[in-house]
Amino acid sequence: MHDDTYTESDIESFSAIADILSRLCHHALTYVSVSPTSGLGDLGNSLIRLMYRGAIVRADGISQCIATGSGEQASLLHRPLIESMFQLKYLVSDTQAIGDKVMAYRYCFFKEQEKLLREASEGKALASVLSLTDKARFGSMLTEINDQLRRDEFSEIASEYSKRKKAKKPRKSLHWYSMYDGPENLRDLSTHIGLEYVYILYKIGSSAIHAGDGINGVTSLSDGSPITKPIRWAEKLPYLCKTACMALHSAVETYLGAVSPNTVQEYRAWYEQNMPELLNDSLADKISITIHP
After folding, report:
1. Range 172-199 average pLDDT
2. Beta-carbon-side half-sphere exposure of residue 285 (alpha carbons within 13 Å)
3. CA neighbor of 21 nearest in space, from 262, 254, 247
4. Among 197-201, 206-210, 256-260, which stretch is predicted with the lowest mean pLDDT?
5. pTM over the 0.85 mark
6. Which of the residue ranges 48-57, 64-73, 135-144 would you say has the lowest mean pLDDT?
7. CA 73 to CA 278: how far, in whole Å?
8. Is the Cβ–Cβ distance between 68 and 232 less than 8 Å?
9. What whole-number distance in Å separates Cα of residue 153 and Cα of residue 99?
10. Within a 10 A sphere around the Cβ of 72, how many other Cβ atoms?
11. Cys staple from 58: which of 81, 203, 217, 288, with CB 3.0 to 4.6 Å?
């Protein structure tokens, strides 16, 4: 189903762009089950694989939005895709510290779940829609999470978390990558991994994520008269596709470089052969859209 403002020719243009990103997603997916040849351990390899898979899922979502000309919807997935790529790069940036990073990720994940479940079981969150049964169920889940957090394997990271938490505002959540003197926030993280310029792309999508871009819902006709954009609007589809491909391409190289270094050259050869639109920067030529307000 597509918006009535698009012609069949428009949809064909959207599909041509979406197919480029989809092509990369499908190939990236073939590496999810690659046999690790690195010495990162089971937990390290599992977390790297999960982060990598998350990047593919977000990129695939963007390709599905592009296929229907849904530019604004694609923008909503743009930011979490870049977050996934940043965090994956940080995770593997120092393989000697992979054990500490895995523990930090797991512990911070449980702490965030603990916070949400505690608020839900106490009736502070969704109080008007939760039944007593719901609250009891959340209370039971909270007990399980707290049992996890008290495990001996988390004693060291629990101490580190407590130390970092004291330096934060009371209700401020901690990022797992900030443990052990890591980057405080995503901006610092982008600097740490040498991708400050990508952080700018990340910020471009922030207003859409936080619903601060309402004014972008208005455009104008050729005579200057204002109109409200359709729900599905095809602006910047080549840009969204190109940046999503860039982020996923980086994630694939990072992932393979960490778990199966011998596979990196094989992937690069595939990329050079199968992604010519990105290599020769002809992506914009793939789209010719006629908008009918």
Report:
1. 91
2. 6
3. 247
4. 206-210
5. no
6. 135-144
7. 22
8. yes
9. 11
10. 20
11. 81
Structure confidence by residue, pLDDT tens digits, 62-80: 999 999 888 888 888 988 9
φ, ψ (nearest 5 deg) of residue 226: -75, 145
CA distance 69 to 65: 6
DSSP the chain: ---TT--HHHHHHHHHHHHHHHHHHHHHHTTTTPPP-SSSHHHHHHHHHHHHHHHHHHHHHHHHHHHTT-HHHHHHHHHHHHHHHHHHHHHHS-GGGHHHHHHHHHHHHHHHHHHHHHHHHTT-SSTTT--HHHHHHHHHHHHHHHHHHTSGGGHHHHHHHHHHHHTS-TTPPPPGGGTTT--SSHHHHHHHTT-HHHHHHHHHTHHHHTT--GGGGEEE-TTS-EEEPPSS--TTHHHHHHHHHHHHHHHHHHHHHHH-GGGHHHHHHHHHHH-HHHHTT-GGGG-------
* Dist. CA 107–CA 119, nearest whole Å: 18
Q: Is 21's pLDDT higher than 70?
A: yes
Residue 108, both tokens: 């911070």
Residue 38 CA, chain-centre distance (Å), reads 25
Mean pLDDT, residues 137-166 taken together = 91
Single out the residue of 173, 180, 174, 177 nearest to residue 157, CA to CA: 180
